[in-house]
Amino acid sequence: MIYTITFNPALDYVIQVDHFKAGQINRNKTENVYYGGKGINVSCILNELSVPSTALGFICGFTGKALKDGLHGLGIHTNFIEVEKGMTRINIKMKSDEETEINGKGPVIEKKDFDALLKIVKTFKKGDMVILSGNIPSSLQSDSYQRVIKVLNEGVDFVVDAEKDLLMKTLPYHPFLIKPNNLELEEIFGIKLKNKEDIVACGKKLQSLGARNVLISMAKDGAILIDENGTIYQQGVCRGTVVNSVGAGDSMVAGFIAGVLKERDYSKALKLATACGGATAFHSGLATYPQIMEAMKTLE
Ligand SMILES: Nc1ncnc2c1ncn2[C@@H]1O[C@H](COP(=O)(O)OP(=O)(O)OP(=O)(O)O)[C@@H](O)[C@H]1O
Ligand SMILES: O=P(O)(O)OC[C@@]1(O)O[C@H](CO)[C@@H](O)[C@@H]1O
Fold first, then answer.
1. Per its UniProt record, what Pfam families does this chain match (predicted)?
2. pLDDT, tens digit (0-9, with 9 covering 90-100), for 180-194
3. Using CA atoms, how far apart are residues 20 and 286, in angstroms rounded to an integer?
4. 8 Å CB contact between 213 and 157
């Protein structure tokens, strides 16, 4: 079984506003609500690819209920911890002359809630895979990712897609896959990446710190994978018009894992990953299976 863990799930309120002006009343041209949070997005794309997963994490309040019910409506299995204080966040994604995101804080996670998550994680068996993605609510300690990883049973692989410190602290535990983007790499190493060689060097450094497979996404410039044997794969993008930048990276993670599970061919998995990332970028909301298959036909 694949488990996705989203410590801070969300409802994504995606709006379009013509020429947004701060300090004034603005009116939406379009508005949509999507189930969000990075791990949730991974579960949604896996579901499109007919790969079952269970979405875990902490939810709270009416927004948490809407998220859970909505995922069940899509046929996605969940095992959320329902916490008492606060509410599942609503993240605002505004498209206007510029794109603006305002991500919420999320609910209060108490020790008993975190312990309840650890109890579930301890039941995962050899052959299972866990995908840990996204930010953590401010009520959680910064070592929360490691605390989950440390209780995993032998033979349970894990994937990490998170920002700087959260990601770096997991490397000594040998994640099966990490997926930083090129900007995150620049932030991690405090350098400006100038070419492919620089990017590969950073990826290899992450491997020397413990990561097994490193998938570096670069938006319109595609992606580079350095696998655990040191083989380097470079992949361009699908052709299309970008309408959405939310969730392309999560879609890529889902596509890669689905590809690896179907056949252990990293080159094919990278192609499926790219089609998933592209299909999400070319449509509003996350990609559907037919959109992913369409994108696949236009791979560079
Ligand atoms: N503008 C684009 N044109 C074509 N493909 C794109 C574009 N943006 C993203 N993609 C596809 O999606 C993949 C992942 O995108 P990206 O590098 O933006 O991930 P990310 O930074 O993690 O995204 P996010 O945080 O928005 O989910 C890319 O490698 C590419 O295949
Ligand atoms: O605040 P985090 O956890 O870093 O990011 C959360 C988020 O921006 O990431 C997803 C896209 O990758 C969205 O669905 C969601 O709103």
1. PfkB
2. 999 999 999 999 998
3. 24
4. no
pTM of the model: 0.97
Is pLDDT above 80 for 300?
Answer: no
In this model, does residue 138 exceed pLDDT 90? no
Provide the token pair at 130. 């866990």
d(CA 139, CA 163): 17
Averaged pLDDT for residues 72-80: 98
Give the integer Cα–Cα distance in Å for 36 and 48.
15
Structure token pair of residue 289: 């299976």
38 vs 228: CA distance, rounded Å: 24
Annotated catalytic, 250? yes
Least Cα distance to 232 among 241, 222, 240 occurs for 222
Cβ–Cβ < 8 Å for 92, 63: no
Name the amino acid, one letter, at 95: K
The catalytically annotated residue of 157, 198, 250, 265 is 250
Q: Which parts of the chain fold into alpha helices (H)?
A: 38-48, 61-73, 111-121, 144-150, 164-168, 182-189, 196-208, 248-262, 266-281, 289-296
